[in-house]
């Protein structure tokens, strides 16, 4: 039942969008209404769909540069709906039963939209406003049923037009009542449930702002960067240009790419040509096999198609010759969202067959697997991976802020510490993915989350590397580069960490 919440939220967004366009258009043609009110309704009906499309287009590096000059439109649309609802309520043009909740809801999300727009352009805010943005993001997690909605642009609060004329039929009145109840529910979830938790989360980030990285004199710790969108076809030229420039600027020790099962030979050949300059600079290459449906969840879980995944893995190993291969990216993170919660034994069997495929082509390639949910299934898979007879060469972790444990990463790092202390692994470990959500909690929180994990990882001698997710926003807002081309503060933090580690090694 929980997996239906996210698709239901998307369906509700579409319903509200249609309602806004139809109802605002009708009110704009109502000659009995004031001219100013007609103009506001007409603009709202005209701009809501283009504004929505533009906010989706400006969420990715691939298209963001082309339309970034128009990213102000969505905050303007939100403000138009807020003005329309307040005007209708103040002039008593709407039944207060549904007019008041809709007006309060529109004002609230207009303020959130303004804060998100300003943060997207590099402006920092005082705690109450930053917490309001975080509260709205947490509310979306509660309603959507999954933390993956934190990064995707498809989950947003649609404004609601205020119906400033009497309901002609009982069904129409009932629908308006439902809309007002939905608006009231969002207000309560954001302000009552989300806001206090958001304050705790933001302060939790700040508590680790001054964590110190542990020196690694043996130069045995690599910091890497995940680049490009998850690939099933050749990488888009804007992504290549953007990420290649960032790699030149940052000079990372490792690069990670995610390839989707079923990727064509043409796509992998194109990827190989893209990665050639970095490989010549002796950067380690990590390749993970990902999953489809990460941006918009599927209604039904896909099966684990081992035949397709192993065929793609052969192409990847044969053409790219990576240093480390993850046959399954986060089995109990993104893997569980795409495929469902498979038993550990099924993952173990698949990973064993994948390791056999890889080693039959190149025995020097190392096989890795990451824990990400820190549940019992993850614990069982981790214990199997670190066993001496396991085909896994590197065990690891994925560490992202969680809305379910106070917003911090400490619960996951404590669990990882407990596993390592109790099982005493001898195999090398990596943090295969870490990052933050700059448009959910603010850009400072992204910087502090990445820094916290780097400090934790460098303090564990068994951990030999860390991958930051990711170079840019590719449908998921967690990149070091914003869609408008601006580097976020987390990029400077990563470069500062690499300089410090290299100086300690020298």
Strand percent estimate: 5-15%
Q: Alpha-carbon distance between the termini? A: 55 Å
Query: What is the makeup of the main sheet?
Result: 8 strands, parallel, barrel
Question: What CATH architecture label of the largest domain applies?
Answer: Alpha-Beta Barrel
Assign the CATH topology of the largest domain: TIM Barrel
Radius of gyration from CA coordinates: 24 Å
Tell me, what's the shape? Answer: elongated
Main-sheet strand order equals 1-2-3-4-5-6-7-8
Secondary-structure element pattern, one letter each: HHHHHHHEHEHEHEHHEHEHEHHEH
How many structural domains can be distinguished in the coordinates?
2
- The CATH class name of the largest domain reads Alpha Beta
Give the rounded overall mean pLDDT. 88
Question: Structural class, from secondary structure content?
Answer: alpha/beta
Name given to the CATH homologous superfamily of the largest domain: Glycosidases
Proportion of helical residues: 55-70%
Number of strands: 8
Low-pLDDT ranges: none
Contiguous helical run count: 17
């Amino acid at each position: 039942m929980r997996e239906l919440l996210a698709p239901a939220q998307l369906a509700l967004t579409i319903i509200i969008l249609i309602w806004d366009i139809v109802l605002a258009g009708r009110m704009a043609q109502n000659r009995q209404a004031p001219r100013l009110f007609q103009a506001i309704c007409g603009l709202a009906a005209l701009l809501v769909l283009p504004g929505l499309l533009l906010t989706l287009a400006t969420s990715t590096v691939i298209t963001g540069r082309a339309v970034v000059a128009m990213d102000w439109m969505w905050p303007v649309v939100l403000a138009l709906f807020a003005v329309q609802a307040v005007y209708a309520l103040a002039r008593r043009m709407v039944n207060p039963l549904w007019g008041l909740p809709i007006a309060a809801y529109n004002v609230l999300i207009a303020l959130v939209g303004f804060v998100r727009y300003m943060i997207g352009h590099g402006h920092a805010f005082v705690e109450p406003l930053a917490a309001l943005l975080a509260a709205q993001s947490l509310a979306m997690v509660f309603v959507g049923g999954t933390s993956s909605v934190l990064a995707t642009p498809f989950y947003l609060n649609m404004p609601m037009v205020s119906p400033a004329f009497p309901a002609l039929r009982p069904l129409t009145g009932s629908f308006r009542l439902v809309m007002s109840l939905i608006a009231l529910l969002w207000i309560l979830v954001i302000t009552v449930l989300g806001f206090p938790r958001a304050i705790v989360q933001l302060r939790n980030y700040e508590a680790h702002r001054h964590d110190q990285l542990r020196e690694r004199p043996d130069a045995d710790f690599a910091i890497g960067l995940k680049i490009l969108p998850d690939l099933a076809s050749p990488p888009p030229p804007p992504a290549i240009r953007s990420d290649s420039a960032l790699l030149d600027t940052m000079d990372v020790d490792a690069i990670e790419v995610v390839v989707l099962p079923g990727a064509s030979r043409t796509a992998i050949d194109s990827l190989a040509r893209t990665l050639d300059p970095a490989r010549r600079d002796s950067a380690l290459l990590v390749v993970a096999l990902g999953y489809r449906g990460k941006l918009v969840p599927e209604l039904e879980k896909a099966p684990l198609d081992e035949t397709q995944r192993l065929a793609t893995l052969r192409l990847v190993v044969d053409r790219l010759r990576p240093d480390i291969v993850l046959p399954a990216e986060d089995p109990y993170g993104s893997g569980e969202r795409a495929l469902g919660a498979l038993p550990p034994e099924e993952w173990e069997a698949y990973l064993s067959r994948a390791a056999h495929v890889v080693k039959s082509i190149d025995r020097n390639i190392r096989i890795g697997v990451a824990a990400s949910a820190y549940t019992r299934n993850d614990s069982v898979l981790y214990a199997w991976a670190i066993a001496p007879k396991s085909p896994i060469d590197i065990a690891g972790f994925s560490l992202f802020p969680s809305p379910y444990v106070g917003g911090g990463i400490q619960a996951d790092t404590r669990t990882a510490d407990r596993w390592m202390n109790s099982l005493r692994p001898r195999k090398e470990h990596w943090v295969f993915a870490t990052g933050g959500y700059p448009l959910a909690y603010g850009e400072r929180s992204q910087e502090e989350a990445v820094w916290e994990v780097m400090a934790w990882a460098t303090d564990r001698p068994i951990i030999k590397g860390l991958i930051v997710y990711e170079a840019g926003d590719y449908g998921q807002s967690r990149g070091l580069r914003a869609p408008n081309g601006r580097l976020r503060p987390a990029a400077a933090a990563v470069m500062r960490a690499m300089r410090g580690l290299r100086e300690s090694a020298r």
